[in-house]
Design a protein that fits this description.
Blueprint lengths: L1 H15 L2 E7 L5 H11 L4 E4 L5 H12 L5 H22 L2 E6 L6 H12 L4 E5 L8 H6 L2 E3 L2 H13 L3
Parallel strand pairs: 1-2, 1-3, 3-4, 4-5
Helix pairs in contact: 2-7, 3-4
Length: about 160
C-alpha cells in the first residue's frame, strides 16, 4: 500500500510540474516547431528553450557587441563565448535536453551540448536520421533515447511526463 501511494505521488508530481526542455542543434529545418506543436496538442506542461537560431545573429554577436576583429578565429571565438553564456545557463536549468543533428551541416556545437548535458547528469534525447547512426555512436551512447523524428520526441515526453503510451 505504501509503495502504491508513493507511485501515485510520483506520477502526480511528474504531471503537475512544468518541465524545462532545451532544444539544441540544427537550425535549418522545422523540427523545433514540430515538437512544440506536438507538445501543445498533447497539453504537456513544458517550457522550451534553445540557442539563438538566427544564424547571422549567432555568428556575429561577438563583433556586433564587443567590436570587430582582425581575423575570423577571434570573431568566432567572441561569438562562441557570448553564445555559451546562454547555452550553458539554459542547459544547466533544463530537465531534458534534446539534441538534433541534421544533414545540411555538421553540428559540432550540438555534439558539445550533448556532452555538456551528459556531464551535468541531464537526460539527453538525440534526434537524427539513421544515416548518422555510426558517426554519432558515442553521442548516442550517452543519450537516454535516440529518436529519428520530432514526433518520437513528443511521444517520449508524453510518456515521461504523463505516463501515456
Amino acid at each position: 500500500m505504501f509503495r502504491t501511494m508513493l507511485a501515485k505521488i510520483g506520477n502526480e508530481f511528474m504531471a503537475t510540474k512544468t518541465w524545462s526542455v532545451y532544444l539544441s542543434g540544427e537550425i535549418h529545418s522545422d523540427w523545433r516547431d514540430r515538437i512544440r506543436e506536438g507538445v501543445s496538442k498533447a497539453k504537456l506542461p513544458v517550457d522550451f528553450y534553445s540557442p539563438v537560431t538566427d544564424h547571422d545573429s549567432s555568428d556575429n554577436c561577438g563583433v556586433e557587441i564587443l567590436g570587430m576583429e582582425g581575423n575570423d578565429f577571434w570573431k568566432d571565438h567572441k561569438g562562441a563565448q557570448i553564445n555559451a553564456i546562454r547555452t550553458r545557463t539554459l542547459i544547466e536549468q533544463s530537465d531534458v535536453v534534446v539534441v538534433r543533428f541534421g544533414d545540411k551541416y555538421k553540428q559540432w556545437n550540438a555534439a558539445f551540448d550533448a556532452g555538456f548535458a551528459a556531464a551535468l547528469g541531464k537526460p539527453v534525447i538525440t534526434l537524427h536520421d539513421e544515416g548518422h547512426t555510426h558517426a554519432l555512436k558515442e553521442v548516442d551512447a550517452c543519450a537516454l533515447a535516440v529518436a529519428q523524428t520530432p514526433e518520437q520526441v513528443v511521444r517520449i515526453l508524453d510518456y515521461v511526463i504523463e505516463g501515456r503510451l
